[in-house]
Amino acid sequence: MFQIDQINQDILRELVRDGRMSNTDLAQLVGLSASACLRRVQELERKGIIKGYRAVLDPASLGSGLIVYVTVGLSRHLKKDQEAFETAMSISPQVKECHNVSGIIEYLLRIEVADLEAYKFFHTEVLGTVPQVSSVVSYFVMGTSKDERG
Fold first, then answer.
1. Three-class SS of residue 90?
2. Starting at the edge strand that comes first in sequence, how are the strands of the sheet with 107-113 ordered?
3. Is the pLDDT of residue 1 over 70?
4. Which side of the chain, N or C, has fewer Cβ within a 10 Å radius?
5. Nearest Cα to Cα of residue 122 among 86, 92, 91
6. What is the pTM for the complete model shown?
7. pLDDT band for position 148 (50/70/90)?
């Protein structure tokens, strides 16, 4: 297993905070030379610890001001039903995250839509047309005090 020492932890923390910072700035923040820092970042990438870099978008600016977390129960616990549900969610643009979870439900979804009317459309025309779905509970986000998703 790859060693995550304190310097690697510092590199990861800084890249999560700002994945666009220059290698020179990163090296200075973690107390390394630029070449040593670059070697460590490249090794973290090669090992798959750093999976990629992405832009963090503001959903409201893009017309998706309503965020809803949705729990979904399936009528049967068969692999083919899970695969069918996951396929349906993967092609739905409103679904930003789809997690298979443990507990009394099978899935937790993160939905981004413009407004309540758009969510109603998703609820009826997307979830309501997937035959494997047996239960849906919606949780509307009223505010966010912390969000560290990258």
1. helix
2. 95-100, 107-113, 66-74, 133-140
3. no
4. N
5. 92
6. 0.78
7. confident
Tokens linked to 35: 């070449």
Spell out the alpha helix ranges (H) of 18-126: 23-30, 34-46, 79-90, 116-121
Q: Which residues contact 41 (CB under 8 A, 6 or more apart)?
A: 11, 15, 23, 26, 50
What six digits make up the tokens of 24? Answer: 């020179």
CB contact at 8 A, 53 and 59 = no
Contact 46, 56 (CB under 8 A): no
115, 65 Cβ separation under 8 angstroms = yes
pLDDT digits (tens, 9 = 90+) for 65-108: 999 999 999 999 899 999 999 999 999 999 999 999 999 999 99
Among 35, 45, 41, which Cα is nearest to 7's? 41
Confidence of residue 62 (pLDDT cuts 50, 70, 90): confident
Q: Which residue has the tokens 């997690």?
A: 99
Furthest CA-CA distance within the chain? 57
Strand, helix or coil for residue 98: strand
